[in-house]
Amino acid sequence: MGGIGLAQxxxxxxxxxxxxxRSLYNSDDxxxxxxxxxxxxxxxxxxxxxxxxxxxxxxxxxxxxxxKLPICMAKTQYSFSDNPTLIGRPRDFEIxxxxxxxxxxxxxxxxxxxxxxxxxxxxxxxxxxxxxIDKDGNLFGLS
Length: 143
What we know:
Elements lengths: L2 H14 L14 H13 L3 E4 L1 H13 L6 E4 L19 E10 L4 E6 L18 E2 L5 E2 L3
Parallel strand pairs: 1-3, 2-4
Antiparallel strand pairs: 3-4, 5-6
């Protein structure tokens, strides 16, 4: 089956099944309320705290009308928390929102949590740590 055939099957499946989708929050909810609902309902946490920088951004985004946008959470890949030592699905934790980044072209706001890098997919030990150039100018550690 090619791409068109697959697309037709997906469309047929969508039309033949009832949709029970409902959003976690209303678009009119505040940015903090949206984030807190995600943390409580999806992640199993008890809430979110916001740094001073994030609080200022919430105020600014509200003035610009961006507070109606959906939220995308950026957190550790090790758990539903922002703490990489809390593996899996811990309970009753708080997530710290340190920064908000608007992705206006994509149509959402990214909530950056905890002490994380935003470059996805990096291993614990990047390959760059094993790369170098010897005294003769030869590269090693690239493979």
